[in-house]
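Students often ask why we bother predicting the structure of a whole assembly rather than each chain alone. The short answer is interfaces. A chain on its own may look different once its partners are present, and contacts between molecules only exist in the joint model. In this exercise we take two input lines together and write out one structure for the complete complex. Read the inputs first and try to guess which parts will touch.
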Amino acid sequence: AQSVTQLDSHVSVSEGTPVLLRCNYSSSYSPSLFWYVQHPNKGLQLLLKYTSAATLVKGINGFEAEFKKSETSFHLTKPSAHMSDAAEYFCVVSGTGFQKLVFGTGTRLLVSP
Amino acid sequence: ETGVTQSPTHLIKTRGQQVTLRCSSQSGHNTVSWYQQALGQGPQFIFQYYREEENGRGNFPPRFSGLQFPNYSSELNVNALELDDSALYLCASSLDGLSYGYTFGSGTRLTVV
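Now the answer. The structure tokens for the assembled complex follow.
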């Protein structure tokens, strides 16, 4: 079975400093991996996706993630945080067969001025 | 191109009642998935419909049921509501169930009292 573990439930940064949200995955085959963002009282928005192409994936709003098979990791980074980045972030792996999405428990990103 | 729309946005039901949630898929999408997101948790897969047939189900009891219509819109029905059914219910659509193509709606917030 596929699963993801988000290593931090909360991450606090100051505006303008780098962001690192950590995710490890478990999969019996080459997975598709995603990061989604959820702002308060909103639905989920896809930030970026890895589907076995380039291991460094660039997404929207300056976010990127690197797929590291040897470490089974897919960490999300951004060079400089903005106040509008404050939200809940979910690391997601796709399942087998009909490719359901398996979500992590989420990391809440707090950005202070 | 319209996105995924869900209705209603909020509703309150009494324990034991039945509820129907609705989802209009994105134009051109033939697959709809439903997810339950309890407060402070990541979304959990309920089931998926592809061309009007259920082709995948998560670990939810039979009182959670669904339909997909010829225009690919969908309904989620929950019978005999329990307090623990209180959650945000998210609908996502994609073309042919491809995991990298899901678009999420903003959800329906269900409160069971």
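Check your guess against this: The interface with chain B takes residues 32, 34, 36, 42-46, 49, 51, 90, 94-95, 97-106 of chain A (CB under 8 Å).
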